[in-house]
Specification:
Helices cover 37% and strands 20% of the residues. By secondary structure, it is α/β, with parallel strands linked by helices.
């Protein structure tokens, strides 16, 4: 669960509480966003496939609507895929997608909160994928240990966390003060810190993922980043993604933005304004997504 830049598989939404996220309400947005990010996931999965050969069971921990889960089923035609998420409405979409893509016969879902839901696995996983779901769990170290415990000997844990904040616009966009996105990064980083602090059982942790994977008893850590590079002019889907991101930031930034930046954001989000992200020619999407892997000793 689709964020540091949180326009991932689970983009972050701001509900009635500043850091509450209603994932089911965001289903369509999560789905289109994950589809937009398919080039990143395809490259990440191709990289994993070189190390993880012929897995029997792949678990997508925090799968959301199952876009990436179905991509796993496609990439590993011999594997069974299990999508795990706390939101049943999202898993319903995952099952429908698996049926549409003709992989339903080896696709299953499991509803429950991570990491506890993984106790229900009938078999250990040969590959466990967690794409930005870990940072929604209060005790990340304990959760990683629980993830590692669900691996078969020789099984791989793959974690998508970190990377770089995405960029959508030039530094100077012709309206407002230049450097808007750098200031939005600060707002988002502060929101992310609050979100982490508000989680049940929240534990502050140095985000050294290879070190944490090693502490969970895993070996052979590897790290690689993948670029999402959608140059201008972008598709309507990419514009919608940028607009959704800017809307989330505007709603989150209760006091983090000055009046000038708020006016600029409002213009960027007004479909009637030629300067908006819905209409301007210079919108792009550029982001880096980092995957860390480690293996359970045989």
């Amino acid at each position: 669960m689709a964020h540091h830049q949180h326009s991932h598989q689970h983009g972050h939404q701001h509900g009635h509480e500043p850091t509450d996220i209603d994932w089911a309400e965001m289903a369509l947005q999560l789905e289109t966003q994950a589809e937009l990010f398919t080039p990143v996931h395809e490259r990440a999965l191709a990289w994993l496939a070189k190390e993880v050969t012929e897995p029997g069971l792949i678990v997508d921990a925090g799968s959301g609507p199952g876009v990436v889960s179905c991509l796993f089923a496609e990439t590993f035609p011999g594997a069974r895929v299990l999508a795990v998420d706390a939101s049943e409405p999202l898993l319903e979409r995952a099952r429908a997608r698996a049926a549409r893509q003709g992989v339903a016969d080896r696709f299953a879902t499991l509803t429950g909160e991570l990491p506890g839901a993984l106790d229900q696995l009938e078999y250990p996983a040969d590959l466990l994928w967690a794409s930005r779901s870990l940072h929604h769990l209060g005790d990340q170290r304990a959760a990683l240990t629980a993830f590692a415990d669900r691996l078969a000997p020789g099984g791989t844990l793959a974690l998508l966390e970190g990377g770089l904040p995405s960029r959508f616009l030039p530094r100077d966009i012709g309206i407002g003060r230049p450097g808007l996105q750098a200031r939005l990064d600060v707002v988002e980083a502060e929101w992310f810190t609050r979100m982490r602090a508000d989680l049940p059982g929240s534990v502050a942790e140095t985000e050294d993922w290879p070190a944490l994977l090693t502490a969970a008893g895993l070996k052979h850590t590897r790290t690689r980043s993948f670029l999402l590079d959608l140059p201008a002019p972008v598709s309507d889907r990419a514009r919608a993604h940028v607009a959704a991101y800017l809307t989330r930031i505007r709603d989150a930034a209760t006091d983090g933005l000055d009046a000038d930046d708020r006016v600029t954001l409002d213009r960027l989000l007004d479909p009637a304004d030629p300067a908006s992200v819905h209409r301007r020619a210079d919108v792009f999407v550029l982001g880096a997504y980092t995957v860390h892997t480690a293996v359970r000793p045989v």
